[in-house]
Amino acid sequence: MLEKLYFYYTNDLHSNFDQWARVTGFLKEKKAMKEAANESTWTIDIGDHVDRVHPIAEAFMGKANVELMNDAGYDLATIGNNEGITLSRDDFFHLYDDAAFQVVCANLHSMDNQEPDWLHPSVKIESINGVRIGVIGLTAPFNAFYELLDWHVASPYQTLKKYVKQLKQSTDVIILLSHLGLSEDQEIARRFADIDVIIGGHTHHLLRTGEHINNTVITAAGKHCAFIGEVILTWDHDQGKLVTKEAYTTDVTHLAKDLETEQKLYELSEEADKILEEKIVHIHSPIEVKWFKDTVIMQELTNTVQDWTNADCAMLNAGLLLDQIPAGDVTYKDIHQICPHPINPVVIDLKGNELLEVIRASFTKDFMELKLKGFGFRGEILGRMQFSGIEVETYVHETGEEYVQHVWFDGEPLDAERTYKVATADTFTFGRLLPEIAKSENKHYFLPEFLRDILADTLRIKFGDK
């Protein structure tokens, strides 16, 4: 006898709810069809469902996301870095308290030995006809952030050695829910022949029909739930093994919306607006924001970041602020709209010659006009860098390009061999935007505060009623 096992999954929604009513409609319909046909089916999320860029996620600190997943009928989920490191420890500890699904993550551990009740390293599920399925979850090890919140993320490979061995002895099929990224998923498939399926995320890769490496099928469905993934496994009960492993993705952007979900999103949005309407400050004059010019607000924000982190100097890009700030009452909702990024301050150690290279790079047209996607940045372009604690003297070439001529610290030129503590946005510690920052061996992140929290303080102190 052949039995088909169906798994529908989402990954990396990032609180982009544009397609969510369609996602819910699709998942409900598929589950109802399979259950009516007496076939086994499960609905899964691979993490980064929560992203505080959206007012609903911000107002409810992710709990509304969990409520929406409950309504959609999810059975399993693992966590992404946006759940794990963009919430305070307490908010994350209680994020899934009311989840109607099981949360699986084997490499996340509390450093104070108090694990949340919802956290499971692995789970076992069973098909209608008795096929035993072991599910493991893994999340990306951003320990420079996690450990500031008293969590630790263990090595994915060491974790897998333990749990794959355990599940191999007690299950027929092993599935990994991986918020690690495509290259890690591929390496895991090469190393662990006993893993049958890797459902992935984190790097927003879209595998329309899956990728087969050795014994494993790897799949992922992009980002923002424009696509929903499907895995179909066929178990031969006579042979006692899997005979086919298939993976597909479906574009849902043209499908009908689930009206109950659409109404729920409207209600959550209205409630979120009320929560975020708390007045932060009253300002008498509008505050100008420009992406390619020095402005008072960016200068004051950069000054505040330097003071708040006790750094030697600070640098922030103007593209962090997305809009002007009108006169009148400024609410937290206003600040969230103006600075929606889940970006934390960071202090890094740079030698004087490295700092000079960073400053020079930040004045290039390519840097300022870069339309960055990812690394926490949710704006349009990076914009001009502004500085605190250092003086930057530039000249404009006849081509119109601006170049750095001199940089002064305490009235003296930068010392090439001196180490400076530089405060900036944690965005620049990832990738190769500013290599000297990314490669710095000493990085001190500040959590759970976002830059918008420091913007709120700046407005209160520097621009509010005296």
Automatic annotation (TrEMBL):
Protein name per the record: 2',3'-cyclic-nucleotide 2'-phosphodiesterase (5'-nucleotidase family)
Boundaries of every Calcineurin-like phosphoesterase domain copy: 8-205
One Pfam family hit: 5_nucleotid_C
Residue stretches spanning the membrane: none
InterPro entries: 5'-Nucleotdase_C, 5'-Nucleotdase_C_sf, 5_nucleotidase/apyrase, Calcineurin-like_PHP, Metallo-depent_PP-like, Pesterase_YunD
Recorded family membership: Belongs to the 5'-nucleotidase family.
Keywords: Hydrolase, Nucleotide-binding, Signal
Domain 5'-Nucleotidase C-terminal stretches: 290-427
Top-level division of the source organism's lineage: Bacteria
The keyword Chaperone appears for this protein: no
Coiled-coil segments on the chain, per record: none
Taxonomic placement: Bacteria, Bacillati, Bacillota, Bacilli, Bacillales
